[in-house]
Amino acid sequence: MNSCVLMAEIINEPQLRYTADNLGVTEMLVQFPNSQKPEDPPATLKVVGWGNLATEIQQNYHQGDRVILVGRLSMNTVDRQEGFKEKRAELTVQQIQSVGSSFNTTSFSSTPTPSFTETSSPRQAPPSRQPETNFSTYESQRPAPTPAPSPVGVTPPTNYEPTPQPANYERTTYPAVKPEEPDPDDIPF
């Protein structure tokens, strides 16, 4: 299954255009940290949205917004003017979510807004939060999970004794072998 989840910042304003059969297509460029080293330049990726999602992206998301993107990653081959072919990665977005301006892309430190969006809906302003400095100190706002009650008892039996197998029981997947009779043509070669 090809599925990619990416936290990134939009660096080009989303551009909306339409196909010949009036299907909306939005293209934008995003950037994200390329490695664990802060001195390395960020990586960029072309993101494409289709249909109603394309319209929503163009209306609600803009350059500088930090987003979580869920979609399919693909590689496209492009013929360059210099005479060689270049491979470029492209993300076809299926869901998009804003994470607000307090999000730090070099370490996961802010809580994203709670719902993914697939259809057109007005974007709400994210709550203002101070970024946390350590991912391990992140505390979820969800309640702690509790086990579901079960009408079936799970107590193990206290007087378990293995059932003895019958004496003639043979553990095999092969048919029982009959004792061999001597071969009447017992001629050695």
TrEMBL record:
Alphabetical keyword list: DNA-binding
Bias kind Low complexity: ranges: 102-123
Keyword DNA-binding assigned: yes
Region (Disordered): 102-189
Claim: DNA-binding is one of the keywords in the record: yes
Matching Gene3D superfamilies: Nucleic acid-binding proteins (2.40.50.140)
Gene Ontology molecular functions: DNA binding
Name this protein carries in UniProt: Single-stranded DNA-binding protein
